[in-house]
Write a structure and sequence with these properties.
436 residues; alpha/beta; Rossmann fold; Transcription Regulator spoIIAA; 4 domains; 13 helices; 18 strands; globular
Length: 436
């Protein structure tokens, strides 16, 4: 067994976990295969936050049944939020060798060792981004906490990932310092609820309270060579004023907020268990925009939640039209077994859910098109992440995707000043501004 393939679907946390797993397997002597069919070891890192995502996971898992049986010694591993009742999963998928909880890739290494597929000493020092080997991308996702303490009635994440567990602040700072030393120029701090980071940690020596996200932002901001800091995903009930102030005061903290509203009606929010009202959310957005002028804000919305009337849906639509977000991630509600909302009648027809979802998509395309059109002729600062199809690709601090051509210079990992010549709803095109 010497080749591997990792298939990933879902949130940024899953992709961060897969990146770390891939590095660990590479350190242990495995080579990455271009396709699952060419690998000895296949890992599926899964998501079940929506029925559509779960269906994709089931389809991928089922498609590998023949691959597993065609050759002896192949190994199939499933990790992520698909892994709930392991006994039931083993009965349904007896050809899977190992089921792992979300973010628990370390157990795979121990399993390989225990089954004599790796030398035992290899588990003495599991890889982490702190190791000074392997390539790193320009922008990295860095988990700062796992799990969630909220009880949103529709969400299966807490059931699968458990209660919130924050990583120690010095550990995170050390990891990011190492990454920056190897070429990372932007980090995105990840948490299921990034705003509540640190509440479960002990107070540092000489302090009366645990660290929180604003403390972490200030500590990371001091790292030389780091250009940008992002964080997601926020919860409207937990976003502290100190975090908004940090985004306003610290130049390296990107003025971009991911702040899911989910619905624009108080009764729907109550049934969702969100813990805030529309008025409170509207006030929070106003405070952010007042304190961080020119910021961008993205949100998430669920349409067709049990009992959502046409009037309640219209209230959500109207709120989005009023607040004019830079991005809206909209999804049709799907029942997640085991959640409190699963006990409610799923009484909005699927066709109506899709109509509502599409209407919000169309609204947002218009709004963000109008927002981005304001950049025409303006210069923006872009952190360049890669070259793609003959053009350089990067993002502004407000998370706008920008492309521009330049064959004369390698821009990867650099900050470029780009004049916008075309602006669409999902990306912009420009030309690099050359200084004399």
């Amino acid at each position: 067994m010497n080749t591997f393939y990792v298939w990933t679907i879902g949130c940024q946390m899953n992709f961060a976990d897969s990146w770390r797993l891939e590095r660990e397997l590479g350190r242990l002597g495995f080579r990455e295969a271009p396709r699952a069919e060419d690998a000895d070891l296949v890992v599926l890192n899964t998501c079940v936050v929506r029925q559509h995502a779960e269906d994709k996971c089931v389809g991928r898992l089922t498609s590998l049944k023949g691959w597993k049986r065609r050759a002896a010694g192949r190994m199939l591993v499933v990790m992520g939020c698909f892994v709930g009742d392991e006994e039931a999963l083993l009965r349904a998928y007896p050809y899977v060798d190992l089921f792992l909880k979300p973010s628990d890739y370390v157990s795979l290494v121990h399993y390989l060792c225990d089954h004599d597929l790796l030398p035992r000493w290899d588990t003495d020092a599991l890889a982490s981004p702190l190791r000074e080997d392997g390539e790193v991308p320009v922008s990295m996702h860095v988990p700062i906490s796992y799990g969630c303490d909220h009880h949103c009635t529709y969400c299966i994440v807490r059931l699968r990932r458990g209660a919130e567990r924050s990583r120690p602040l010095p550990e995170i700072v050390g990891e990011i310092r190492s990454l920056v030393g190897r070429g990372v120029r932007e980090v995105t701090l990840l948490g299921q609820n990034v705003d509540s980071y640190g509440h479960d940690l002990p107070p540092p020596a000489g302090r009366e309270r645990p660290p929180h996200l604003a403390d972490l932002l200030h500590a990371i901001h001091e790292i030389d060579g780091l250009y940008r800091i992002r964080f997601l995903t926020s919860h409207p009930a937990d976003l502290r004023s100190e975090v908004i102030e940090a985004a306003a005061a610290l130049p390296r903290v990107c003025p971009h907020f991911e702040l899911p509203v989910q619905a624009g009606d108080d009764e729907v929010l109550r049934r969702m268990g969100r813990g805030y009202t529309v008025a409170q959310y509207r006030d929070l957005i106003a405070r952010i925009r007042e304190q961080v002028p020119g910021c961008s804000i993205a949100t998430d919305v669920i349409v067709g939640f049990p009992g959502e009337t046409e009037a309640q849906y219209q209230a959500t639509f109207d709120l989005l039209e009023e607040l004019r977000f830079d991005a809206v991630h909209v999804a049709a509600y799907s029942v997640r077994p085991g959640t409190p909302a699963a006990r409610l009648p799923d009484d909005v027809p699927q066709e109506e859910k899709e109509r509502r979802r599409q209407a919000i998509d169309d609204l947002q395309a218009r709004i963000v098109g109008e927002i981005n059109a304001q950049f025409l002729g303006r210069d923006v600062e872009v952190l360049v992440e890669r070259e793609k199809k003959g053009r350089w690709e990067g993002r502004t601090a407000t998370n706008k995707l920008v492309y521009y051509p330049d064959e004369d210079r390698d821009w990867q990992g650099r900050l470029a000043r780009v004049r916008v010549t075309w602006a669409g709803p999902w990306s912009m095109i420009g030309e690099v501004v050359r200084k004399a």
